[in-house]
Design a protein that fits this description.
disordered C terminus; two-stranded parallel ribbon
């Protein structure tokens, strides 16, 4: 497993550190798994190429892609600089798209692939989250479209709207951050991601609201030909 985290600020304009990725790798290795840390900032085709090459050098193939990168700025539409807006869009949409297209020929060639795109219910509008909502909405469209293209190659593409404690929620008011830590532990989201990444998966093109150990599917009406079965994990 390649664990990618550039470790910088939400705006993507602040230089990061590989320490966050390395901390996750240390946990995986302590549990008996194999992992490598990667500190590339997602957001360009070149960074996607480097991340995928790292995976190939370390493990020889790519079977699963979890597009989990995200960052946000809070304010009205005119509150940010052009560079800040572009940075959020690169992290939330351009980066995931570049990674998906870099792994696609590898997965197509081997006849197997699982892609999970991590989005947000903010795509429906929440206020003061314009760049973030726009980026995740773009990823929602990509998820549905890639699901159609991937099915014939056994590349199954799905997405989630997660609610879980993270570095992003830690930037909230302390009471809210504590509430996330208490009730929305991230491991209660990762169980569904593991299922969506598994060989046993037999559907694509679905998006799940998931948190506190429960999940509910949300499907575009156009996806019925692709999403032929319902998940047993849905509440």
């Amino acid at each position: 497993m390649i664990v990618n985290d550039y470790g910088g600020a939400q705006s993507t304009l602040t230089p990061g550190t590989i320490s966050h990725a390395q901390a996750v790798v240390d946990e995986i290795r302590a549990a008996g798994g194999e992992a490598e840390a990667d500190g590339e900032m997602v957001g360009t085709g070149e960074s996607a190429r480097l991340i995928v090459e790292h995976a190939l050098d370390a493990f020889g193939r790519v079977d699963i892609l979890i597009n989990n990168a995200g960052g946000s700025l809070i304010g009205e539409p005119d509150a940010f600089t052009d560079e800040e807006i572009e940075g959020v869009l690169r992290t939330n949409f351009i980066g995931p798209y570049m990674l998906l297209r870099r792994v696609w020929p590898l997965m197509r060639g081997q006849g197997f692939g699982r892609i999970v795109n991590v989005m947000s219910s903010a795509v429906l509008g929440a206020g003061h989250l314009g760049p973030y909502a726009a980026g995740k909405a773009g990823l929602l469209g990509l998820t549905h479209d890639a699901a159609f293209d991937g099915r014939p190659h056994n590349i199954l593409v799905n997405g989630i709207f997660p609610t879980g404690a993270s570095r992003l929620t830690e930037t909230s008011h302390e009471d809210l951050a504590r509430w996330y830590r208490t009730h929305f532990q991230p491991e209660k989201v990762s169980a569904l991601i593991a299922y969506l990444s598994s060989e046993q998966l037999d559907f694509c093109g679905e998006v799940f609201n998931v948190g506190v150990g429960a999940s509910r599917g949300w499907r575009s009406s156009t996806m019925t030909d692709c999403s032929i079965r319902r998940s047993p994990l849905k509440a």
